[in-house]
Structures are given as C-alpha cells and as structure tokens.
Amino acid sequence: MTSFAALLPRPVSVTPAPGTCPWPSTVDVRAASLPPEGYRLEISPSGVVLHVADAAGEVYGRETLRQLAGPSAFRVAGFAPGELPCGVVEDHPRFAWRGCLLDVARHFRTKAEVLRFVDLLAAHKLNVLNLHLTDDQGWRFEVPEFPRLTSVGGWRPSSMAGSGGAQDGRPHGGFYTGDDLREIVAYAAERAVTVVPEIDIPGHARAALAAYPSLGAESSYEVWTAWGISTSLLSPNESTLDFFRRVFDHLLDIFPSPVIALGGDETPGATDDHREFVRRLAEHLVARGRTPMGWDEVLDIPGLPPMVIGSWRNEAAGLRAAEAGHDVVMCPEQHVYLDHRQAEHPDEPIPVGMLHTLEDVYAYEPALTGPRLRGVQAQVWTEHLDSVRRVDYMTFPRLSAFAEVAWSSGNRDYAEFLPRLRDHHLPRLDALGVEYRPLDGPYPWQTRPGVPGRPR
C-alpha cells in the first residue's frame, strides 16, 4: 500500500481517514459536478467510489488508484492487488493543455513505441501528444495520393553522428500508415490523450522536396542527413499550396484533434510570399473546422486567423501572441526542452543544448497568465536520440517533474518533491520498464561511448 503523500502529480487535496480498503473488484463510478477532467476519489473500508466530471476524470481517478496500489500495479503481469489507504482525494488539473512533443521525424519510433509513450503520458496525467511527423530528415505520414512522400521522403542514407558533422553511414527510415495512426489516435483517446499532428511548412521540408522536387525551386533534393536549419523552403505558389491542402485534408481524415499544427518555424530566406503561404494554409484549416497551431515565428505574418501559438523561443513570444489575440502553449527552450543536457558532467551521453536539470524543470513557471494561456508543453526533439532507450533517458524523470508543473496548483517545493519522486515514483517507472536517468548520474551503459560513467 502507498500513502496519499506519495502521489505524483500532487492532487488538489487529500483527506486521509482511518482504516484500509481491500483492492476492489469493481469501482463505483458516478457523474458529478466537478471542474473539467476532475475527480473525487472516496476510499472506505467498504469500497471505492469515483465521482468524475467526464471520461478524462475517470481515467485520472483510476490512475490515482493505481498509484495508491503500489508499483506492482504498473506491471503488465504479476500484479497482486493489495490494500488501499482510506480517505478522499479531490483533484483536477491546473492547465487544460498538458502536452509533450515527440519528434518521430528525425529518428523514427515504431507504432508500439509511440503507444508506450502514450501510456507514459497518461500515467503522468498529461493529455496532449504533439506528434512531429515531418521534417528535413524524414516524412513519417503516409498520404496515398502522394506515395513518394514516404517511399522517398521516409528514408535517408545516413545520419549525423552527434553534433560534429561526421556521418554514421547507416540508412534510417520508416513511416506510419493511415491505419497505424488511427490506432495511435484511438489508443490515446482511451487514455484521455489527444494526438495533435504536425506537418511542418514552409521550412523543415527537405524530405517532401526530395520526394517531389517541383514543390521547391531546385531540380532535385535529398533527404537531409544533417541536423540544424536547412535553407531549403517550399515554393510558395498555387500548385504547392494545392498539394499541401490535399495533404492536410488527408491528415484531418485521420486526426480528430481540434488543433492541427503546421510549423512555420526556422525559415531563413522566407519572403512575404512564404508568409502568405502559411496564412492561407492556416485559413484552410479554419475552413475545415480546425484551429491551426504554429510556432511563434508565425506571429510576424500579417492577417493570421486566431491560432494556437507554441511559444518556444522565449517567454516574451507568448506574451506577444496573447496580446495579438491568439491562445498560447508555453514551451520555451530555456526551460522545457528535454533533449537538452541534464548535467554539466562529461559523462552525460548527449551534452547538447542548454542545461536543464530536474530541479530546473520542476521550477518552471510560465510568465503568461490569464485566459489566453491554454497550458504548457515539454519538447522531446530527437536529432540525438536514436533509440527508445535514449528517449527514455532524456525524457525521464524530468517529464515527471514537468507533469506536476502542468497538473498541480499552488506552490511547489523541490525539497518535498524529490523524496516523493525518488522513493515512490521512480519505482513506478522501474515497473513500467522506463530506462530513466538515475538521479546521481547515468549508468555505465547510458554514458557516451568511451566514458566509464558513475553508478547510481
């Protein structure tokens, strides 16, 4: 049995009561007037009653029950139900958008690995998976009308090894069929996770250009094998616009998300025509009943329809977006980019980007407040994450800290959080098979090649 004090993210309130409750064969679920996604969990010696605001509230209430049952409840098999502490948990989220971006364009992750990632989001009461499906280094979304997007754009002959420019010489690729993505969407919905797809335009588009060079200004392109910012942009003409309207239309048939992301970031050499190109595709999404989402560079485009802006370059961009009448998801690289290094020590396997320690992530507080703030999002870009083990290492336990930022209201105390994470939540991650970064440094097999590393 686990105590209420071990719950993560921390609930709104807990009222312990005397006694224990055997693990129930059924849970009595009742509708109640509660905040969206909220629940009230009542545990008494006679049983468990779960009052919920909606289907998401039921998911989160059951997740809290699973935490109270102990780490064994997170194992796929072999779970022996035990006892639960008696009391009442009242809970609802701080933010409506509690997201995490997973980049499957730079390094492809299989459908099974994406489904596992969805499970990990749900276990942390996170509710948005921003799936980054296309980039210079790969196109991962099957469009039957344009098969070369995946047959050509889904593969590259090599990848940059690290950040020094050397190539590893290993082909890399993969893509999701429409059925794959429908399965991911349905699986996520059952766990109260919305999948927000992203097709990046007019930059980060070398994979599409390699498949269909007529979309650009040159006669031929290759899927990019380097990291960084490519200067290759889509040609902002009517035929390219029509092509991407059809691509997005197919995307909308698969993803029911109210929000659809179209990128718009890092476009060196972009002209007014490129900006108009983005605006017209955003208007197309609006006409199809969806809300477009773009990175904060799109704020420089005149005449944008109301959008969701991902404020990634700094906090000021989010404030500017709100002043312009857009909703905002705060995801600044200075605070919540989980591909950035976790310590200054040279044994870190991927010593890139800014330093974001576990404590740094836990301390993040968005500068924007008010009704324009939809919520917050952590980012897992994968240029340097070439396996699911690397994704685990860079994402956890920092995403566990971020989950409390996104869900829990009130002041946060890292000194209180750390033992709760170490003593109770890391065993849950162990039970889930997550190869997270140990709190005192990587295991030897998690370090960079040639670095001995330190024991936990």
From TrEMBL:
Catalysed transformations (reactions): Hydrolysis of terminal non-reducing N-acetyl-D-hexosamine residues in N-acetyl-beta-D-hexosaminides
Annotated ranges, domain Glycoside hydrolase family 20 catalytic: 95-268, 274-409
Residues covered by the Beta-hexosaminidase bacterial type N-terminal domain: 29-92
Keyword terms of this UniProt record: Glycosidase, Hydrolase
Name listed for the protein in its UniProt record: beta-N-acetylhexosaminidase
Family listed: Belongs to the glycosyl hydrolase 20 family.
Domain of life: Bacteria
